């Protein structure tokens, strides 16, 4: 089910998004970033982006792993800080899929498939893909593509954007609508897409260099993918949505060769993230995962990579209840990386598995002194209190957490569990309502909030809060439906 919906989503997005770049020197970049100004406003793009993201949460296997999300966001924001023409907030997230792909859409949303980590050999290579997708957003390629299509068809920009929304929510209906809008203009669309891809490469290279990454990583990654799938009957989605003709690879290689090569040390967090994905998010059983660790260990002497392989092994042991084996490895890694969130997250789970709740609490609270308000540490600490059945403490923590990170379903899920354990049915329903809203299931969200209001004490502040939220959800639902 996920694959079918995801395929439709990627096809719909790729028909409209794929983006090129221009040369990295600022005086060589044409002033084309605002060409879509007459199409959709930035505010309208943000509204559509929020709508698309809600549907993606409901239809795609979005990875809700706090520590992986922190890593992807950290990498993304480092690149955004060095990008030109940034006019919107950015949001980075992972989709659990072994296929290589990435895409961007309205509102600064950038999706990365977990399979990208399997094929990226360095953080610079991964960053080159992220930088490319950021360029799609900053240069407003989706809006510009819609503008181009609107000139060729009788449909309005709103109809095109609504078709894309439908393509995500109901693949058959949406793809049919998009196909109708593209009749008679496929060749022009293909040419426009190829142009956008080269443009995104150039802008992406500029961002990559300014952020301190290796410029050669982009052509190196592209070349390896092209060689690997040159004769494949079914190339990965990335190559379908981001074609790699030889001239595109040559262009990126030529630009990289004009720059000084950058020798970067191995990124600890990149390799930890890759290890975590292989251990937990590619569907390997214990033996296959440990076999991968063993084979990879024989191929490297890099201490950061070796540490990440130990980390992968510890996660496999932890997930398979081999607590003593996991304990030995994680304590060794903690001695080396005492402030690393990948290690702290796993060690917290280890303490919970051993019912060492006080130790887990101290570990995380000490770390929060160094990294105040860190969401990975906070959600882990809240989870410790839940597992220790300290529900009143967990409730207070999670109420604050969900207020500050209202789009993080982890917080709402834990709060729902906590409220249920405390016997607070209305609170449990309200938390579940927020999860439904994050997935564009407006009617269900309104239904459970209505139930919560009926349970709450008549005339109480709690009931007033639920009723006010119902009014907000009704407005949000109407706005969402109007977009289609």
From TrEMBL:
<dbReference type="InterPro" id="IPR051156">
    <property type="entry name" value="Mito/Outer_Membr_Metalloprot"/>
</dbReference>
<feature type="active site" description="Proton donor">
    <location>
        <position position="201"/>
    </location>
</feature>
<dbReference type="InterPro" id="IPR011990">
    <property type="entry name" value="TPR-like_helical_dom_sf"/>
</dbReference>
<dbReference type="InterPro" id="IPR001915">
    <property type="entry name" value="Peptidase_M48"/>
</dbReference>
<feature type="signal peptide">
    <location>
        <begin position="1"/>
        <end position="25"/>
    </location>
</feature>
<keyword id="KW-0574">Periplasm</keyword>
<feature type="binding site">
    <location>
        <position position="132"/>
    </location>
    <ligand>
        <name>Zn(2+)</name>
    </ligand>
</feature>
<keyword id="KW-0482">Metalloprotease</keyword>
<feature type="binding site">
    <location>
        <position position="197"/>
    </location>
    <ligand>
        <name>Zn(2+)</name>
    </ligand>
</feature>
<protein>
    <recommendedName>
        <fullName>Putative beta-barrel assembly-enhancing protease</fullName>
        <ecNumber>3.4.-.-</ecNumber>
    </recommendedName>
</protein>
<comment type="function">
    <text>Functions as both a chaperone and a metalloprotease. Maintains the integrity of the outer membrane by promoting either the assembly or the elimination of outer membrane proteins, depending on their folding state.</text>
</comment>
<feature type="active site">
    <location>
        <position position="133"/>
    </location>
</feature>
<feature type="domain" description="Peptidase M48">
    <location>
        <begin position="69"/>
        <end position="254"/>
    </location>
</feature>
<keyword id="KW-0862">Zinc</keyword>
<dbReference type="Pfam" id="PF01435">
    <property type="entry name" value="Peptidase_M48"/>
</dbReference>
<dbReference type="Pfam" id="PF14559">
    <property type="entry name" value="TPR_19"/>
</dbReference>
<keyword id="KW-0645">Protease</keyword>
<feature type="binding site">
    <location>
        <position position="136"/>
    </location>
    <ligand>
        <name>Zn(2+)</name>
    </ligand>
</feature>
<keyword id="KW-0378">Hydrolase</keyword>
<comment type="similarity">
    <text>Belongs to the peptidase M48 family. BepA subfamily.</text>
</comment>
<keyword id="KW-0479">Metal-binding</keyword>
<dbReference type="InterPro" id="IPR030873">
    <property type="entry name" value="Protease_BepA"/>
</dbReference>
<keyword id="KW-0732">Signal</keyword>
């Amino acid at each position: 089910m996920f694959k079918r919906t995801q395929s439709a989503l990627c096809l719909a997005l790729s028909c409209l998004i794929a983006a090129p770049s221009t040369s990295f020197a600022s005086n060589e970049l044409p002033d084309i970033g605002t060409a879509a100004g007459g199409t959709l406003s930035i505010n309208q793009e943000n509204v559509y982006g929020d709508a698309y993201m809600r549907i993606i949460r409901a239809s795609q296997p979005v990875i809700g792993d706090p520590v992986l999300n922190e890593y992807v966001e950290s990498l993304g924001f480092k690149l955004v800080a060095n990008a030109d023409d940034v006019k919107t907030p950015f949001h980075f997230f992972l989709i659990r899929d072994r296929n290589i792909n990435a895409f961007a859409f309205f509102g600064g949303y950038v999706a990365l498939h977990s399979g990208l980590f399997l094929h990226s050999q360095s953080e610079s290579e991964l960053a080159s893909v992220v930088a490319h997708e950021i360029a799609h957003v900053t240069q407003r390629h989706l809006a510009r593509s819609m503008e181009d299509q609107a000139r060729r068809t009788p449909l309005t920009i709103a109809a095109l954007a609504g078709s894309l929304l439908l393509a995500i929510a109901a693949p058959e209906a949406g793809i049919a609508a998009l196909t109708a809008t593209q009749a008679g203009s496929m060749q022009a669309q293909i040419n426009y897409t190829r142009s956008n891809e080269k443009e995104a490469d150039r802008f992406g290279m500029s961002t990559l260099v300014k952020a301190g990454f290796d410029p050669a990583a982009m052509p190196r990654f592209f070349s390896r993918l092209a060689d690997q799938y040159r004769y494949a009957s079914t190339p990965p989605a990335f190559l379908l949505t981001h074609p790699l003709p030889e001239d595109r690879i040559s262009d990126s290689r030529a630009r990289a060769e004009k720059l000084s090569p950058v020798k970067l040390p191995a990124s600890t967090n990149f390799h930890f993230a890759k290890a975590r994905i292989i251990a937990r998010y590619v569907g390997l059983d214990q033996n296959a995962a440990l076999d991968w660790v063993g084979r990879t260990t024989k191929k490297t002497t890099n201490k950061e990579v070796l540490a990440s392989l130990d980390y992968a092994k510890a996660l496999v042991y932890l997930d398979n209840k081999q607590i003593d084996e996991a304990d030995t490895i994680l304590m060794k890694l903690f001695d080396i990386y005492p402030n690393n969130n990948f290690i702290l997250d796993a060690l917290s789970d280890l303490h919970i598995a051993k019912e060492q709740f006080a130790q887990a609490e101290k570990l995380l609270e000490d770390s929060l002194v160094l990294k105040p308000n860190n969401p990975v540490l906070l959600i882990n600490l809240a989870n410790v209190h839940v597992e220790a059945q300290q529900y009143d403490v967990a409730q207070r923590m999670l109420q604050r957490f969900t207020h500050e990170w209202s789009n993080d379903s982890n917080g709402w899920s834990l709060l729902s569990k906590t409220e249920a354990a405390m016997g607070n049915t209305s609170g449990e329903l309200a938390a579940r309502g927020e999860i439904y809203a994050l997935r564009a299931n407006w009617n269900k969200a309104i239904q459970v909030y209505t139930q919560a209001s009926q349970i709450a004490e008549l005339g109480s502040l709690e009931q007033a809060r639920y009723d006010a939220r119902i009014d907000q959800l009704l407005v949000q639902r109407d706005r969402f439906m109007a977009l289609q």
